[in-house]
Write a structure and sequence with these properties.
The complex is a heterodimer of chains A (about 240) and B (about 210). By secondary structure, chain A is mainly α. Chain A is about 80% helix and about 0% strand. Chain A starts with a helix and ends with a helix. Chain B is built from 10 helices and no strands. Chain B starts with 19 loop residues before the first helix and ends with a helix. The chains are: A mainly alpha (about 240), B mainly alpha (about 210).
Chain lengths: ~240, ~210
């Protein structure tokens, strides 16, 4: 019965005009009339709408909320560039520091080592290790390159002929032997040559200790030694021949 | 903000008909926090939302608070709303239903007002039962209202309906939506809304007997 009423009522109300539907179906009039009356009463209940003051207040509240939200958003946007600026300042200061350190390092001949040191301090350990690994072979190579020259100089200095004229300053001392006085003292000159050779050994040794010029001096010594040898022969020969 | 013209399909609540595209533009303006867009949304839908809240709460002051809150809540969550062709009012109605529920919960089931939307119905039903014709609408005295409320407690009867029946009755009879619009708001088929209306009306009549 209840379901039947609901079904008929749905049909009646769904027709769009309930009273006209009831007029067409008088057999259901008694059953459905109370519901149709309630339906009409509810539709024409004249529920009071909002007052103009109510509308105004509600609209004002909405606009206030909109304004507040916009203010919050604006203040957030305003804070954003300031944060970026602070970050930028710190980054610029860091970059300037690095450039200054690198510049100072270059000026004092420190090369990349100082920069590497800075990076190492900042935590770039891999680079620092790389620097260490690179530095060691160079040091080894420097030692390998320096020693042979020094030894050459030293070995050359032990050659008396080379050593005799290792210092060109000794040659003028031989020159007087070339004149007549040399006839009387050919061996003395030879003895001087021996002394000069000793000096040459000492000088060559000193130069060998100096390392970097040992090779040049040794070469010079070698060349001069040949000349010295020629000079000595020249000085000695005339008296003997005479 | 683009003015919304009155062309296209019928809109909800007897408002000027608008093309869906134009409502989409309105939503876009609302998302951009355009005051004009929000004013337009408010002017279109405030009255229906107020009447719905009144039908549920039976208190004009509470209904005003609720209706205003609906727009403020909508403003807060407009960024998460995506327009997909369903009327914007359907979204606003869902917010209104939640705000009403929260309000009723906060009131702890108190009875705020006896002079709600039932007043006109009570007068009508009282007159019919007494064999009188309905008089022109006139402000009823407190005594009259109290007497009517004792005989026919429409508000209580409404509260005894199922949730869906109550929503259909409130939206159709008090907020003034057509049954087709109610179907859109509730996301149901029109046929289902007719059934809910008929069953709700029958239950209401039984409660009022």
């Amino acid at each position: 019965m209840k379901n039947q009423t609901d079904k008929l009522l749905r049909e009646c109300l769904g027709s769009g005009d309930a009273e006209a539907w009831l007029a067409r179906h008088p057999e259901h009039h008694e059953l459905l009339l109370p519901y149709v009356e309630l339906h009409a009463a509810l539709q024409g209940s004249g529920v009071p709408g909002p007052t103009p003051e109510s509308v105004y207040r509600s609209h004002l509240e909405l606009m206030r909320a909109l304004s507040n939200q916009e203010n919050v958003r604006q203040s957030r946007l305003a804070r954003l560039p300031a944060a970026f600026m602070r970050l930028g300042t710190v980054a610029a200061a860091l970059a300037l520091t690095l450039v200054a350190v690198a510049g100072a390092s270059a000026a004092f001949g420190g090369g990349d080592g100082v920069v590497d040191g800075v990076f190492s301090t900042l935590g770039f350990n891999s680079h620092a290790e790389e620097g260490i690994n690179n530095a060691s072979p160079n040091a080894e190579r420097g030692r390998d390159c320096a020693n042979p020259n020094a030894l050459d100089g030293h070995s050359n200095s032990e050659d008396e002929d080379n050593a005799a004229d290792a210092h060109e300053g000794d040659v003028p001392r031989c020159e007087p032997n070339g004149d007549a006085e040399g006839l009387n003292s050919p061996n003395a000159n030879a003895s001087d040559g021996s002394d000069n050779a000793d000096d040459g050994i000492n000088n060559a040794s000193d130069n060998a200790d100096k390392g970097e010029h040992a090779s040049d001096n040794a070469d010079d010594g070698s060349g001069n030694a040949d000349e010295g040898s020629d000079n000595a022969n020249d000085n000695a020969d005339p008296p003997n021949s005479d | 903000m683009t003015n919304v013209s009155s062309v296209g399909a019928p809109a909800l609540g007897g408002q000027p008909a608008v093309m869906p595209l134009e409502e989409a533009e309105l939503v876009q303006g609302a998302k951009a926090r355009s005051p004009e867009a929000w004013s337009e949304v408010f002017n279109r839908h405030y009255k229906q939302l107020y009447l719905y809240a009144l039908a549920r709460l039976h208190d004009p002051t509470a209904a005003e608070d609720v209706a205003a809150s609906v727009f403020v809540e909508a403003l807060k969550s407009i960024d998460s709303y995506t327009y997909r062709g369903r009327p914007l009012l359907a979204w606003l109605y869902r917010i209104a239903r939640n705000v009403v529920t929260d309000y009723r919960r906060s009131q702890g089931g108190r009875n705020p007002d006896k002079n709600g939307p039932a007043r006109g119905i009570l007068r009508f039903l009282g007159a019919r039962r007494d064999g009188r014709e309905l008089e022109p609408a006139a402000p009823a005295s407190q005594d009259e209202l109290s007497g009517d409320a004792q005989r026919l407690d429409l508000k209580r009867a409404l509260e005894r309906l199922t949730g869906e029946q109550r929503e259909v009755i409130a939206l159709h009879y008090f907020a003034g939506f057509s049954l087709r619009e109610v179907a859109q708001l509730l996301g149901k088929k029109e046929r289902a809304i007719y059934s809910l209306q008929a069953r709700g009306l029958a239950a209401l009549r039984r409660q009022l007997q």
